[in-house]
Hints:
The chain is an alpha+beta fold.
Amino acid sequence: MRCVIARFPFDLTKSGVLESMKGVKPEQVVGESVIIGRRTYPVKQVGQVITRQDRRDFSAGEVLRAMGRLGFTCRGLPQAAAPKGGLGPLQQASAMLGSPAAV
Length: 103
């Protein structure tokens, strides 16, 4: 499959990506990730290995689209949890500090 990552064209195949990632130890995942084989890799690490470019040269979205089109399972950023009890940040801070003692 032909795709463009960081303004450069690449001809990627699923077997080629599997071969490139063979023997590469996954870094700790903190954001978007791609499951390749039985391992979960950060998307920027995968992009660096398959393109041989610096991680700053491409976006995570470019690699996620390419890996998704090749049939790999991709995971995005985790959703932020909703505030408890419907309180805003100011009300939460006030509740954590407690109410002032009556004089």
